[in-house]
Design goal:
The protein has 383 residues and is of the alpha+beta class. The protein folds into two domains: 1-177 and 294-382, Aminopeptidase (3-Layer(aba) Sandwich), CATH 3.40.630.10; 179-291, Alpha-Beta Plaits (2-Layer Sandwich). The chain has helices at residues 2-19, 29-41, 99-113, 138-143, 146-149, 203-221, 259-280, 299-309, 326-329, 362-377; strands spanning 45-49, 53-58, 66-72, 119-120, 123-129, 152-165, 169-171, 174-177, 179-188, 192-193, 228-237, 243-244, 247-256, 283-290, 295-297, 313-315, 334-342, 381-382. The strands form five sheets. An eight-stranded mixed sheet has the order 1-2-5-3-6-17-7-16.
Length: 383
């Protein structure tokens, strides 16, 4: 499209500017100011939400519904080593998850819809959401009633993704990304001299038993056709080589696509740990922190999207990573999809959250095109 050539310069300038100022969740002050400045230049109505977030609203000329699009705006605490021409100016922070690209695509959509030759029929809401990387910005936006206030009928989200080849789009119907949670297990045992173990209760022995025993929950309590993962990634305990450990700590995560499976894992963990307390005569303190719900793509929106993008789409396997876009999908039908960035020839091969993550700027135009195609397909714009 010729329109993309007109927008390309602005989209790339936005990416360059935003890439240099990554900020942590709910502290995206420079980023938010940049977005507001662009929206002011375009004379687009907006309001500030969730501290540093922004929702921008374009009222249609004869609206029957509101279609929403969402981008995340926060960065990561990563020291940049990418080949991108303009590195982060914020020490130890980087847009290592592509959020600079996500914002640039959304601002490109705002610029596209603001052109005189474009007539917006239905309402369009653009959500610039803070804190996707944590502690989560979608939930406070949803709880603030933003979707109801603007009468949102459906919502779309994009993520740049290096496991999908550049030029392709990855998505699937139904569960696409996992529900996730964290847990901490503290074993309170009884210390003793290493030469007199019978006088104590070894916290490391108990913790080791827990690490092994919990693995059977996935393999023996969960239906094999329901994917789930439980990982204990950190174990800490003991003071000296000749002292029986009086305590130990385990830290881990749970992931599943089904809430029932997720809750069953937690229930079985509690039951197992209650038994370990009795068997070893120790006290076990357990804390669970439920985080993001599963991303579940609406079947109808998936079918519509495939009808106009099937030639560049790959139906992928669900991913065990998580995304707080899911909170919007709990309220209205939503579709989340990946824009491929993998390009071996240009060495764009590094995973998300890697210090060398980077992508070809052309993928931003590809993502912007999908936004516009959705609006075209639904007869929400005229040109």
């Amino acid at each position: 499209m010729q329109i993309f050539e007109t927008l390309k310069k602005s989209v790339l300038e936005d990416r360059k500017a935003l890439h240099q100022i990554p900020e942590p969740g709910f502290h995206e002050h420079k980023t938010s100011a940049y977005i507001r400045r662009v929206l002011d230049e375009l004379n687009i109505q907006y309001e500030v939400v969730a501290q540093t977030g922004i929702v921008a609203f374009i009222k249609g000329v004869s609206p029957t519904k509101t279609i929403a699009f969402r981008t995340d705006i926060d960065g990561l605490s990563v020291t940049e080593e990418s080949t991108y021409s303009s590195h982060s100016v914020h020490e130890n922070y980087m847009h290592a998850c592509g959020h600079d690209g996500h914002m640039s695509m959304m601002l490109g959509l705002a610029r596209f819809l603001s052109q005189d030759e474009i007539k917006t029929i239905d309402n369009v809401l653009m959500i610039f959401q803070p804190a996707e990387e944590g502690p989560g910005g979608a939930e406070p936006i949803v709880k603030a009633g933003i979707l109801e206030k603007y009468d949102v009928a459906e919502i779309y989200g994009i993520h740049l993704f290096p496991s999908v080849k550049q030029g392709r789009i990855g998505l699937c119907p139904g569960p696409m990304m996992a529900m996730t949670g964290e847990f901490d297990i503290d074993v309170i045992a009884r210390s003793a001299h290493g030469a007199m173990p019978h006088l104590g209760t070894d916290g490391l022995i108990v913790a080791s038993e827990i690490v092994l025993g919990l693995q059977t929950i996935i393999s023996r309590n969960i239906n094999p056709i329901n994917p789930a993962v439980m990982t204990i990634g950190r174990m800490e305990g003991g003071e000296r080589r000749n002292v029986i450990a009086g305590s130990a700590r385990l830290e881990g995560t749970i992931r599943a696509f089904d809430k029932g499976v997720f809750n069953l894992i937690k229930t079985r963990m509690r039951q197992y740990l209650d038994g370990i307390e009795v068997a070893y005569d120790v006290k076990i303190l357990t804390e669970f922190r439920d985080m993001y719900p599963p991303v579940v793509n609406d079947q109808n929106l998936f079918n519509e999207f495939m009808s106009c993008h099937a030639d560049v789409c790959d139906v992928i396997d669900p991913q065990m990573i998580s995304e707080d876009f899911s909170y919007y999908q709990e309220k209205v039908p939503g579709l989340f999809y990946f824009i491929g960035t993998y390009n071996e020839e240009k060495d764009y091969v590094y995973p998300l959250h890697h210090s060398k993550f980077n992508f070809d700027d052309d993928v931003l135009l590809h993502g912007l095109e999908t936004y516009i195609s959705v609006l075209d397909y639904k007869n929400c714009i005229q040109r």
